[in-house]
Amino acid sequence: MYREETIAAISTPLGEGGIGIIKISGDKSLEILKSIFVTKGHKRKEDWEPRKMVYGYILHPQTQEMIDEVLAVYMKAPNTYTKEDLVEIHCHGGMVPLRKILALVLEQGAAMAEKGEFTKRAFLNGRLDLSQAEAVMDLISAKTDVSHDVALGQFEGILSQEVQGIQEIIKDMLAHIEVSIDFSEEDIDEVTMEHLLEKSIKAKESFETLLQSAKTGKILREGLVTGIVGKTNVGKSSLLNALLRENRAIVTDIPGTTRDVIEEQLNVRGIPLKILDTAGIRDTEDAVEKIGVQRSREIFQQSDLVIFMIDASKKLDREDYDFLEIIKDRRALVIINKTDLEEAIDLERIKSIVGDKKLIRISLLKNKGLEALEDALEEMAYEGDGFSKEQPFITNARHQQAISQGLMSLEEGIKALENRMPLDFVEVDLKNAWESLGEVTGDTVSEDILDHIFENFCIGK
Ligand SMILES: Nc1nc2c(ncn2[C@@H]2O[C@H](COP(=O)(O)OP(=O)(O)OP(=O)(O)O)[C@@H](O)[C@H]2O)c(=O)[nH]1
Ligand SMILES: [Mg+2]
Q1: Number of structural domains, the chain?
Q2: Ligand 1 in contact with 53 (CB < 6 A)?
């Protein structure tokens, strides 16, 4: 699980940039640095004060080839990211110097770091727990302020604390059971029984609150996939452009303008949306458009959120009504566009079909109603719960699964308690619940899962 070698990687993205950083971690870090670094006067440097940037050059020790002008810093274990000796070489941010220096570092005895290996070491050395380590990747990939806040909260341990809080309750219950099993041959006494039930209900509530956060958490981490669907010419592409505040999609008064799916990332009040503008749905003989319409139907099925758009000035047809029927059971919004024109729709009939789904009247031509639409999108993402930085969120499927599993075991335990089953049974269920929770923080996680998690990291982190 843990290889002892000193590892190295390029930690900055490959491309052209002001600076690029090569990171080295492990026992030999400083030795390697010493072998390739020279000071301004081309002297080897023996005395390295930790955490102090030093100006100099990287020089090939055998060929004396000068590779780049750099700043280098040595950080001494254990107060580093990996809790090992760590070196950073800041060189010019081009592919050639970065690759040449990395090659030289490897030549001097470092091994190429695997994806996420620095963070994996931070976890294995106890600097971060597993959910914190996972948050590092979320921090890097966050697309909006709110997603970033959630990742930062997880990195700071808000989720871990919540999980450990539940583990504490379970531990207390287990301790009670232990005592009861040890000291009494007879049935469990009423006081202990009461106590255990009371605690288990408290644990169950905490589990449920946490699991409720998973929907919003997933959206904040991965974005809400939002499909704009509707008949041709209703203004779908105009909406995409309005939300993006740029002329991304072609808009014309010719029905069937959009023929393929247009995908864009959008930030609405901090919520990342992956927005999909689709081909207007209609019967068509055009082969290309036909495929587009088929795709629109697929997008309609796959979206987390459906924006169904209608044109206020046109009577709805059968198909529109069919769509309205279907979205009743979906996370969906109905947008009535072109309210600047004379209205031909039967608003009451629409309302009676969609029930409590939000109907938003807008005019993209007159720039009216966008605010209300953004309010609605925000509300739908949080499902009315709002967002607080201090709140723990489940943002990844692995955590959700582990916590759901934990809840299931707890519920088994409660059932066993209520049915006055022998306490050993309850004990097994509670231990299972405790272990499932431990998968979140990494206390009880298997090596395969660990490998799998860090495989999704980038190199050099
Ligand atoms: N009067 C009026 N016209 C609008 C409004 N919004 C969009 N339009 C016009 O409606 C026409 C169609 O707009 P698009 O955005 O291309 O419609 P679409 O739904 O993407 O159409 P397809 O791609 O063909 O499915 C264009 O001429 C727009 O300028 C509105 O609020 N009022
Ligand atoms: Mg269009």
Answers
A1: 3
A2: no
